[in-house]
Specification:
alpha+beta; eight-stranded mixed beta sheet; five-stranded mixed beta sheet; 16 strands; globular
Length: 279
Amino acid sequence: MMRTYRVEFAEAAVVLRYKADAAVAAYLDFLFADLRGSGEKESTAALEIVPHDEHLYLLREEEKPLFCGRLSVQFAAVLFDRVIFHLLNSQRHGVALHAGAVSWQGRTMLLPGQSGSGKSSVTAWLCANVAAYLSDELIFLPDDGSGEVIAFPRPLCLKAGSAAVVRALLPAERQADILAEDGGGAVIPHRLLNPDFHLRRDPPSLLLFPRYQADAPLTAEKLPGARASSLLMGCDVNARNLPDHGFRQLTQLARTVPAWQLSYSSFAGFAETLTGLLP
């Protein structure tokens, strides 16, 4: 018998079907508990997770195999990729950005950046020290004049180097709660960093573009609106769905919200530097 798990975000939904299996049910809750929906939104796609061999599972879509393996970090990466694709594939009512997001001192800070920029690492450090978690990967800005930030609150998904740094922020007794692979990345429940999680939708007060550079000193560069707008356009996930590719919304955001580029190689001095950037 197949069971159904609905993931909902920004007025869209994806259905995940799986055979009655306690391990799969627990895995889906681990990844999507904060995005689980009630069935009110029409689904845009369906994915299936079915047993394949001992301890192995097959992820498929319309009978097409997408991935086969253990319920691991790599399986999660493929599953997140397909779920996010379908949630945004027809989204035309706002702009979706590759961005981390945190709430700090009652303000929402966005951390836009492509893969490898360090946004997940910076998001994790902020949440472990001074801020409240919203997302490490994706936010949606509805085109309704509200200015709200709708975050995609998944666990933190970290590559090998970042995973080691972030795991060091956690006490030894919580390491068992992390999904990790030897020598690889990790999926870390955000409540390990922020036990009292509350999903907020406040408008952004600061744009912070992280840029990891090995051995670089910590520097913060104030960005003019045109430069911030260009960087935001590079993080626009659903540009092809929008008549202007999201240019109007993102240009307005860059003009009205202070933007900084933060270059770093370690977290030394982070708190002092970031405090000085808040408006």
